[in-house]
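task queued by scheduler; priority normal; single chain, no ligands, no partner chains; default sampling; output format set to structure tokens
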Amino acid sequence: MAFDTGFIYVFSVGWRRAMFYDLSPLAPNDPKEREYDVSTALAQFYTYLMFQRRFKIADQTWQRLFEGQWFPFITLKDSTVRNLIDHAANSWPLDDLSEAIAGEVRGTLPAMLLRWKTTQAFADHIEFLENASKQFLSKDFLCTSAILFPRIEGILRSHQKLTDPGGQATQTGLADSAVKMAENQRHQNTPLLPRHFQEYLEKVYFANFDPHDPKIKISRNSVGHGVVPGDECNIEAAVISLLLVDQLCYLVSKPSESVPLRSSTCNMPRR
């Protein structure tokens, strides 16, 4: 679009409507040339309109999602994410969604594996990821969880070495490095929600545990120290670990690399 023209753009996603306008080049007293790329801006606004439920999650809802160890993972269908958000917002049991989400993940797992095999930070971990995926498909959720929860830290370390060698290899440092590329190279309205995901890694994935607690939740630390109860390595834990890996796959890849996102409306490039 020419720098000296104004425009008004009305667009929609389903029933949602939005309007964006920029008439500044037509100002009679102080016309200004447009200094941003219109195509990029409109793509960002379209993304916000499509995924606005994710961008408007209330703090209390985030807290409930984290308490249930869930996140609006990018791999999931938009309708599934809406169900997660609604359950958390209304204090409904998130466990009720585990079986349905597991079925969704089974269907997308082959595509997930293809993504992982082409991601540089995953190169040293593919054998473990493939094995964990096979265990998941055979419904051995204990093995899936036991393999993936420690291995995710390995992926975080590999990514940090490649892209942020000056970063601290602490739990906080690894979480920060995981989202740094997304924060620097993507628009702030990316549905990957990098800042919230960093918080998820720190508070949920790297959660500490009380050795005297009779019900220790699954986390990197409880698995690594061998104190997690077997019944915590269940279908929900296995599904979350796979979705966590795929979320990282998107976060550590460059925005220019196009990968189909699961959505109820369309496939989109990485934002």
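post-processing summary
- Strands lie at 7-13, 16-22.
- The first strand starts at residue 7 and ends at 13.
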